[in-house]
Amino acid sequence: PRDAEKKDIKAGYFTLVNELHTDRFFGKRLGTFKTKLERIFAAATKAESTLTKAKLRAEYDRYLASRERTK
């Protein structure tokens, strides 16, 4: 949820990382899925960083509010 607390965001992030981190698939032939996993992991890491740092979270919340106003 948009009002999720830092601890909940971190817990969700670590759950996702456990499932999708490329090291989990070490030695397996992933083909094009490796690139997709890397992108998902990078996006999840950026989201976690944005949502757990107060300044970045406030900036993101302002962005979402402005987007809702212009709908």
Short description, anyone?
The chain is mostly helical. Helix content is 73%, strand content 0%.
Which labels suit this protein?
single chain; 3 helices; 71 residues; 0% strand; mainly alpha
Characterise this structure.
The protein is mostly helical and about 70 residues long. The chain contains 3 helices and no strands. α2 (about 30-50) packs across α3. The protein starts with 5 loop residues before the first helix and ends with a helix.
Oligomer: single chain
Residue share in helix = over 70%
Q: Whole-Å distance between the termini?
A: 20 Å
Tell me the strand percentage band.
Answer: under 5%
Biggest β-sheet description: none
Mean pLDDT: 92
Q: List low-pLDDT spans.
A: none
Q: Based on Cα principal axes, name the global outline.
A: elongated
Number of helices: 3
| Order of H and E elements | HHH
- What integer value in Å does the Rg equal? 15 Å
Given the helix and strand composition, which structural class is it? mainly alpha
Tell me the number of strands.
0
